[in-house]
Amino acid sequence: MKKISILSFIFFLSMSNSYGAKRSDDKVYTEQCLSAREYITAVRFLRQQKDFSLNEKQIRTLADTVSKGCTGSSKRFILVTKLLVKTGLDSRSSLKLAVKLSNRTEKEIKTFTYIFKRSYLKDFLDLDIKTSIDIAYMLANKFDGNHLNSQRTFNQILRLCNHKGQLDMPSKTCAKLAARVAKSGKDFKKPIGDGFKKLFHYLIKSDGPNLATFKALQLAEEMMKNGPKSSRNFIQAYKFGISKKGLNVTRGQSINFAKKIASRTIKKKVEKE
User: Fold this and answer.
1) Which residues contact 28 (CB under 8 A, 6 or more apart)?
2) Domain span at residue 199?
3) Which residues does 237 contact at the CB level (< 8 Å), separation at least 6?
4) Does some domain include residue 97?
5) Alpha-carbon distance 175 to 185, whole Å?
6) Which candidate in 4, 21, 92, 191 could, as Cys together with 153 as Cys, close a disulfide (CB 3.0–4.6 Å)?
7) Could you tell me the CA-to-CA distances from 125 to 16, 131, 150 in Å, in that order?
């Protein structure tokens, strides 16, 4: 009985190490931060902003939160604050969002400022401040991909759907679509906007799937989450499915077949240490 108990205990320990404890090959990365510099820079900036009507306690509280964002946090805080106040947002709302974004990455800030400007400025979408912030934040939040590719994709979709483009969508609807598609392509090496447009145009063709505009946009958005090559795979698979020399199935069956094949465009690889 003792022997069985000991073996059971050893087995329990091995299972605990496998599931409960931290794996020995896990890596924890640390970063050295210039927290004093960030705190001091934020305090000095806020003291200069007389129009904000902040007392010393409020200034120090804001600076304390900003300093938690590591090196560069005060720069991010000041950049976002100035941008939002300049566009007419009240100082309280501007500071609240700027503090929040100061603790984010440089990629997130670059993405936020770019998309906000494209959404808000009259030369582009000319949306109201709140909507512009919501759209920019939707794309920038927890963004860790290629911000340049996402910006290109955003612009590519805008050229398709805005009032100056081919679909003449309401600006707000167009911007939200562009932001969703751009974010879904953040992890790919190339922008997915051109692939989206190519697939969309094929989906509405009378000699193709012949889908309604709304359905075509939905399907193109779903398929492009698999990467730039998914449009090519979908179209090729659909043509083979509908062809008499291919699968010779119905239009609906060809669409389902093409969706299944296009979903295999992306294959995740796990790198072992």
Assistant:
1) none
2) 192-265
3) 254, 257, 258, 260, 261, 262
4) yes
5) 16
6) 191
7) 56, 11, 17
Whether 21 is in a domain gets the answer no
pLDDT tens-digit profile of 31-87? 899 999 999 999 999 999 999 999 999 999 999 999 999 999 999 999 999 999 999
Q: Where are the alpha helices (DSSP H) in the chain?
A: 2-19, 35-48, 56-66, 73-86, 91-102, 106-120, 129-140, 147-161, 171-184, 193-203, 213-224, 230-242, 251-262
Report the distance separating Cα 149 and Cα 208, nearest Å: 29
> Residue 166: which pLDDT band, with cuts at 50, 70 and 90?
confident
Which amino acid, 86? K
In degrees, rounded to 5, the angle at the alpha carbon of residue 160 between the alpha carbons of residues 155 and 165 is: 105
Cα–Cα dist 32/41, whole Å: 18
Contact assessment for residue 88 and residue 55, using Cβ atoms and an 8 Å cutoff: no
Identify the CA nearest to 162 among candidates 140, 178, 186, 185.
178
Domain match, 84 and 110 both: no
**CB–CB of 230/190 below 8 Å?**
no
